[in-house]
Amino acid sequence: MSYRPSARAYVNNYATSQISTEDPKELVLLLYNGAIRFLEQAKLAIIQSNVRKRGENLARVINIIGELNASLNVEAGGETASFLRGLYMNMLVELPKVNLDNNVEVIERTIRYLRELKRLWEDRVMKKVQVSEVAMKAKAMDPKVRSSFSFAA
């Protein structure tokens, strides 16, 4: 008797529920990490002449970049969002060509762009989130703030 399929289903269900409850800012970080990982796997597949793995990993990256692109709010994000839209669209045009010509340079360039975007996201967005969380916790611990609330009926 094997419990492997049910264990795998449990892990997949857990992973799906964890992702669906993640903070949107954390999700962007997960998407960048996933895209970079799949690009590295696609590059390895090209080196190993593994057409199936190359195609699977490129498809995953294209889906991730499509999601990143779809999540942009150009009206609210202004120039930065417009720049990202152009960059993502360029990636979405260039990456499918890799399936035809095995151009590792396109993969390496895309990895560099995504690593830089990830670094900027961590430095500019995630650090702001951490600072605001620390401020909220400090405020919650401040006796002056706590004393202004009364639990007496």
CATH topology: Four Helix Bundle (Hemerythrin (Met), subunit A)
Question: What fraction strand?
Answer: under 5%
Low-confidence stretches: 145-153
What spatial form do the alpha-carbon principal axes imply? globular
Q: Which second-level CATH architecture applies?
A: Up-down Bundle
CA distance, first residue to last residue: 59 Å
What is the count of DSSP helices, taking H or I runs of 4+ residues? 6
Summarize model confidence as the mean pLDDT: 82
Give keywords.
single chain; mainly alpha; Four Helix Bundle (Hemerythrin (Met), subunit A); 6 helices; 0% strand; disordered C terminus
Provide structural commentary.
This protein has 153 residues and is an all-alpha fold. It has a single domain (4-121), classed as Four Helix Bundle (Hemerythrin (Met), subunit A), CATH 1.20.120.340. It has six helices and no strands. The protein has helices at residues 4-20, 24-47, 51-70, 74-101, 104-141, 143-147. Helix 2 packs antiparallel against helix 5 (104-141). It is globular and about 45 Å long. The model is unreliable at 145-153 (pLDDT under 50).
SSE arrangement:
Elements: H1 4-20, H2 24-47, H3 51-70, H4 74-101, H5 104-141, H6 143-147
Helix pairs in contact: 2-3, 2-5, 3-4, 4-5
Briefly, what is this?
By secondary structure, the chain is mainly alpha-helical.
